[in-house]
Write a structure and sequence with these properties.
By secondary structure, the protein is mainly beta. The model has no long low-confidence stretch (mean pLDDT 97).
Amino acid sequence: QVQLVESGGGLVQPGGSLRLSCEASGFTFSWFTMTWVRQAPGKELEWVSTINNGGITKTYTDSVKGRFTISRDNAKKTLFLQMNSLKVEDTAVYYCAKGCTVVGGTLRMCTDRGQGTQVTVSS
């Protein structure tokens, strides 16, 4: 079955950087568009970024444009999210997801999601 395992979260000061990874298994990774979503305390799940199966087309929610970079290594079945210039408002659990529907920047649903990795931005 589909397995998505995130890693790389942690505690970082504002302005700092983190690189999240997601190891995929149970499906043909290179066939699928992949997405990062996040959930802040007390808030709904939010779309962050999507990359197509070839790694060429990348989209971002406005609040992370210019600071976050999504990428993938199809040979290693791994998805990445490089996060720079982190802000307190980026604090959330970050999930790697497959089969997501995003309409007008709003996340509708994902068919599969990992367990998540906590990112805390605080001084």
